[in-house]
Amino acid sequence: MTFEALVAHFGGVEGLMAVTGAKRNAVNHWRTCGVPYRHWPTLIAAAQARRIKGITLEALEGTRPCRPSRAA
Fold it and tell me: What is the pTM of this model?
């Protein structure tokens, strides 16, 4: 899931702010850094309560940018 899809599911940045308690600049930062792990349980619970399908751990992991593995 992309960050933009997540925003659409929750009705915009304001919706994500309301659910997570994060400030606007933090939520906007998630566009490049992904949703922090600490918000995942809250987002999943809110999605279930609102009957939004597709918000899972795996979907939220998709909002995080791929990081290259470190060479040994």
Answer: 0.84
